[in-house]
Write a structure and sequence with these properties.
The protein is α+β, with helices and mostly antiparallel strands. It has four domains: about 1-25 and about 535-560; about 30-240, 3-Layer(aba) Sandwich (Rossmann fold); about 275-345, no CATH class; about 355-535, no CATH class. About 25% of the residues lie in helices and about 20% in strands. The chain is built from eleven helices and 30 strands. Strands 1, 2, 3, 4, 5, 6 and 7 form a seven-stranded mixed β-sheet that branches. About 40% of the residues are buried.
């Protein structure tokens, strides 16, 4: 009876341990409060401003993609069309005094005390001071207000961690930036404690107030947003629980909207005869003069268009939502009612090459040292999107040996260079980063383990990629998805070779297999060695469960098997 009771207790204890391990694996999101002025809030008053979702977008996607569980908190919420957690406490035009006491001209907007009543942040990203400069607030008053803000944050959470960002330079108030940043450094040092650390984050060094800001504005453009996001990222990671993924910070999750230039729309064909691409969906071709029910005709090269039966034809059901089927013949298509050109069709084409930027040579197919500054060249025929006042958005994918896809690459300056939605306007198109010689990938970085990497480019502008999805779940290569390039990082260098396998071979096929690398399903290029790999993020948890299961089995066997009797000296036996 004692044995059974012990066995039950042990098994119950082990099951409880398994439950605790599972709960720990799930984790609790860290509440991060972005607190500041217009740098934090951003603006969507104009189409151009609305295309800049602030550093919060890039930072959130970088952290989530790297496996960190975070939750932005704040009373405000932006209306950007990008998908990310948009809660924040950014208030455009607010000085440090307004953060503390509210805007007297808009009392309903509240102040720090009222905002904090609805949440308690674990970490605060404090970015203030620019508006104080604009308003002419004395430096000592600004610094005193920052100290009071720190105290209020601690009143809500005594162990809150506070990151104080320096003021980035701008084209207008450049002269006083260094003065206020020196003061912020003093305040951060004075307020720092072991239980509630206050850390200064340098958002200034390497930031150009002209090229990194929107034209005529103190707000960052995309380059500036990414630089600021990277500085916050580097300061945040040491404060966060360990990621469930590999340590390499990968970049942004795709938005659900098509990114366009401010002056054009890639789905609107502006004039008759313009180029469109086979596979594009939901185009508005009404400006070509084509009406609903019109028959479009295609004639073989050398055949003079006339009222004779065309060699191929299409019927336009809806000119404001017209899809060009994949496989549509290339060349001029005529409005058969008026016998005038409607548009010109081309098959899409996307390719990628790897470049040694120090020597400015194509290194695809060669062996290089891992320290070589690397960039990419996109070879596409999508430059015709400029006819629409827009640009084609092309994404570069890099899949590591474990099957994870990087949405950004680290250069030799430690910056992450994002690879999503690159605006392509020329052919060829050079893709560079923030590293030496314009490099975007330091293949010698310790984050990149030795092994085989697959690199490819793809575009889904106007859902064109989905038109090339085959019945077996793979995509036709060389159209909207490029033929992958294989990169092998080894001990002595990097081997680069183009794959030549047909689309039916797994080593050369981009499929719809899903990898939950960043919490969002993404298309993955699979090969024979990685097609069956499981997500590496669950490995430690599976290992723990396995060990516990083995322990239970051993206990059951050990406690239930017959025991050999111990023989006493007197020759009598007894059970122990």
């Amino acid at each position: 009876m004692n044995h059974r009771h012990s066995l039950v207790c042990l098994i119950a204890g082990l099951i409880l341990c398994m439950m605790l391990v599972g709960a720990a694996g799930a984790g609790t999101p860290v509440k991060i409060m972005p607190l500041g002025d217009s740098l934090t809030q951003g603006s969507n008053l104009t189409p151009d401003q609305a295309s800049h979702p602030t550093y919060r977008y890039w930072l959130w996607n970088g952290l989530v993609s790297a496996g960190y569980q975070i939750d932005y908190v704040g009373s405000a919420r932006s209306n950007f069309t990008y998908q990310f957690d948009q809660d924040h406490e950014g208030h455009a035009g607010y000085t440090t005094d307004m953060i503390l006491n509210g805007n007297r001209s808009d009392s309903a907007s509240g102040n720090l005390t009222t905002w904090l009543s609805s949440y308690s942040p674990d970490i605060v990203l404090l970015s203030l001071g620019s508006e104080d400069q604009v308003a002419g607030v004395p430096l000592n008053q600004t610094l005193q207000n920052v100290a009071l803000i720190v105290n209020q944050l601690r009143t809500r959470n005594p162990s809150v961690k506070i990151l104080v960002g320096t003021v980035p330079p701008s084209t207008v108030y450049r002269q006083s930036v260094q003065t206020i940043n020196d003061g912020l450094a003093v305040v951060a040092a004075a307020q720092n404690t072991s239980s509630s650390p206050v850390t200064l984050v340098d958002l200034t060094t390497g930031y150009d107030g002209t090229t990194d800001n929107q034209a005529g504005s103190i707000l960052p453009n995309e380059s500036g947003e990414r630089k600021i996001a990277q500085r916050w990222y580097n300061a945040l990671v040491p404060l966060l629980p360990s990621s469930t993924l590999a340590p390499t910070p990968v970049t942004t999750i795709e938005t659900q909207v098509t990114v366009t230039t401010s002056s054009g729309n890639p789905a609107v064909i502006p004039f008759a005869g313009a180029t469109i691409y086979a596979g594009e969906q939901s185009l508005n071709i009404s400006a070509t003069g084509v009406a609903a029910g019109t028959t479009l005709g295609w004639f073989k090269p050398g055949v003079r268009p006339s009222n004779i039966t065309p060699d191929d034809s299409l019927v336009v059901d809806n000119p404001i939502s017209f899809t060009v089927p994949a496989g549509t013949k290339n060349g001029i298509w005529y409005d058969m009612t008026r016998m005038v050109p409607a548009f010109t069709v081309r098959d899409p084409s996307v390719g990628v090459r790897v470049i040694d930027l120090q020597r400015n040579v194509d290194i695809t197919g060669q062996t290089i040292n891992a320290s070589t500054p690397v960039g990419f060249i996109l070879d596409t025929n999508l430059e015709s999107f400029t006819q629409r006042g827009a640009s084609a958005q092309v994404t570069i994918r890099v899949q590591n040996p474990a099957g994870q896809i990087y949405r950004g690459l680290i250069d030799d300056h430690g910056m992450v260079n994002w690879l999503n939605n690159i605006s392509v306007t020329t052919n060829p198109f050079s893709v560079k980063g923030a590293g030496s010689y314009g490099s975007l990938w330091n293949t010698g970085d310790l984050n990149y383990t030795a092994g085989q990497y697959q690199i490819w480019a793809e575009t889904n502008v106007n859902n064109i990629k989905e038109s090339y999805l085959q019945s077996d779940g793979s995509y036709s290569l060389g159209m909207a998805v490029s033929v992958p390039v294989i990169l092998t990082i080894g001990t002595n260098g990097v081997n680069l070779t183009n794959t030549t396998s047909p689309a039916g071979n797994l080593s050369g096929t981009i499929t719809q297999n899903m990898s939950m690398v960043n919490g969002a399903a993404t298309h993955v290029a699979v090969n024979n060695s990685s097609a069956q790999q499981e997500n590496t993020s669950s490995g430690p948890l599976y290992l723990t469960y396995t060990i516990v299961a083995i322990a239970i089995i051993l206990l059951i066997v050990g406690l239930t098997r017959p025991r050999k009797p111990n023989r006493r000296r007197g020759g009598n036996n007894r059970d122990l």
